[in-house]
Amino acid sequence: MKVILRKKIEPLGDIGTVVTVKDGYARNYLIPRGYAYEATESGLKRLEEEKKRQAIQLEREKKIAEQLALKLEKTSVTIKMKAGEEDKLFGSVTSQMIADALIEKDIKIDKRHIELQEPIKSLGVFDVLVKLPGDVKTTIKVWVVKE
pTM for this structure? Predict the structure, then answer.
């Protein structure tokens, strides 16, 4: 049976690819889970409409992410931590702590978008990378100060 893939499936191919699979695999797995359409004229039209909607949605998300990135570039966050000798922290600053500090400034970001290259374990000023949807990247300044 020939099907058109709606999602990228590793052994089969990318979105929009027409592949031939066994009938049972198509009827019992791919089509019921929404991973593929049957390769017909209407299936091709449906896939094209779906691609247009996804492109519009991605464009919206990217615009929102770019606006948020501009706001984040101007933002700095202060996190108070207990520190010992030579300004070493007891523990480390996590992405959750940074996300919570941003919420206090009315900026809501999922902690999974905050990327710490290495754990912050000392006092100081750090540039932290934030990856937003739509491949938008920005950095924020994180000030770690003694409590």
Answer: 0.68
Residue 98 and residue 77 in contact, taking contact as beta carbons nearer than 8 Å = yes
Within this chain, do residues 142 and 73 fall inside the same structural domain, yes or no? yes
Total domain count for the chain? 2
CATH of the domain at 134: 3.10.430.100
Q: Is 129 left (phi over 0), alpha (psi -120 to 50) or beta?
A: beta
Give the angle subtended at the CA of 110 by the CAs of 104 and 115, to the nearest 5°.
105
| Whether residue 43 is found in the same domain as residue 77 | no
Q: Please tell me whether residues 25 and 87 are part of one structural domain.
A: no
Confirm if 107 and 75 have CB atoms less than 8 A apart.
yes
C-beta of residue 22 within 8 angstroms of C-beta of residue 36: no
pLDDT in tens, the chain (147 residues): 999 888 888 888 888 888 999 999 999 999 999 899 888 888 888 888 888 988 899 899 999 999 999 999 998 999 999 988 888 898 899 999 999 999 998 999 999 999 998 889 999 999 999 999 888 999 999 999 998
Check: CB of residue 126 under 8 Å from CB of residue 120.
yes
End-to-end, the C-alpha distance of the chain in Å comes to: 66
